[in-house]
Amino acid sequence: MNRLWHGVVKRELALAYQQKTELVQPLMFMLMVVTLFPLGIGPGPDTLQRIGPGVIWIAAILSSLLGMERLFRDDFQDGSLEQMMLSGIPVSMIAAIKVFTHWLVSTGPLLIMSPLLAMFLNLTVPMYIALLCTLLLGTPLLSFVGAIAVGLTVSLQRGGILLALLLIPVFIPLLIFATSAVDSAALQLPYHPQLAIIGAMLLLAMAVSPFAIAYSLRVSQN
Amino acid sequence: MAGLVANALTCIKRDRILFENLELTLSQGELLYLRGPNGAGKTSLLRLLTGLSLPESGTVTFNGTDVGAPQSGFYDASLYLGHKSGLSSTLNALDNLSYWCAQHNVPVSKHMIYDVLERVGLVGLEDIPVRMLSAGQQRRVALSRLWLKPATFWLLDEPFTALDIDGIALLEAKFHDHVSKGGAIITTSHQPLSTRAGQHRVFDLEYRF
Fold it and tell me: Nearest residue of B to residue A12 by CA position?
């Protein structure tokens, strides 16, 4: 247990603390993308309310793609990853912990910032609550699925754009259900079904993706 | 069969056969010096021996069990240092080593890490981010793992790179000490090992077209 806690979790948190700027940049990006929409489309409160959930979710997906690369890149390049793979800790366990701590440090601030974004886009309180629920369930899904692609592209020199091209199509179902949940909340309809589907996708990803990530990292080491 | 045994290993990189049906045995109390020109496949061979990459054909076993299998106990008994130092450049030497020790299940105290860093000549540089250190100092931080982890089998890829004369002497003395205590080392290097390193067996890899 100490191996995982001291060796991986604390290390990841210490690294995140040292690399604060890399974590803040995607957030600033998200904030700016969201503020562009009222300027580009017009500040009508009704329009903003209608496009709001979609805008926030698209911005969240794009900003998470920006920050995703740091998940394995540095550790791969400086050789820390191969040392971890030789430590005897199952690689899938290391992968799961790295993804979880990455989600914590990259999405935690996003969730804190989300009321501000909701206010920018004139979302009502029930809509905001629905949005928060979808973000809580959906963003870990982004991280777990995204990490598979990061593992595969980590040995490429410029994997950034390729990563986005691989992942954006995969995130379409999530986007559909998440925005549909917020729309239902706007119409004061129940939105449990959408949340249940996102939750099911998250559970499946949490169960399967650590093994896929471990495999992709092994392929990248070859 | 005891020790680390490579059986009929074949490695192909980019359609070029690096080596074919290679047989190699590393047993305790032995220093094996792996020699060969650039591109002969020394690094590839070491990575195959650790199980980091998989051979085209052939097997690598440790005490009769496949190295990659958890029950072989290879990871606890071995230490691999590659070209890449395995040090995070933003963390300092002390943190890097203490996290690494935790991962590798090596119980150490801060004092032990300080002592080892002192022995490898890094007094006063413990809490500076590793990227601020010179190449030779970074190499010394990476090599201090040899003092920390009680592993029997060492697989070292160019451990002498960037080291100064004192560093090389220190490392060769450590080799001698380790082998005399029943350890096993396989190392690559472009400089011949001096007599300080003690008795060693040479294994030549040829460059193939």
Answer: B99
* Cβ distance of A86 and B76 shorter than 8 Å: no
Selected residue of B88, B91, B106 to mutate for chain A interface (largest A Cβ count, 10 A): B88
* pLDDT, tens only, A74-103: 999 999 999 999 998 999 999 999 999 999
| Overall fold of domain B1-62+152-209 | Rossmann fold (3.40.50)
Q: For the complex shown, is ipTM > 0.85?
A: yes
List chain B domain ranges. Answer: 1-62+152-209, 85-149
Q: Which of B51, B76, B84 sits opposite A79 (nearest CB)?
A: B84
Residue B100 contacts by C-beta under 8 Å, 6 or more apart in sequence? A7, A83, B86, B145
Q: Are B200 and B193 in contact (CB under 8 A)?
A: yes
pTM to 2 decimal places: 0.92
Residues of A in contact with B75 (CB under 8 A): 86-88
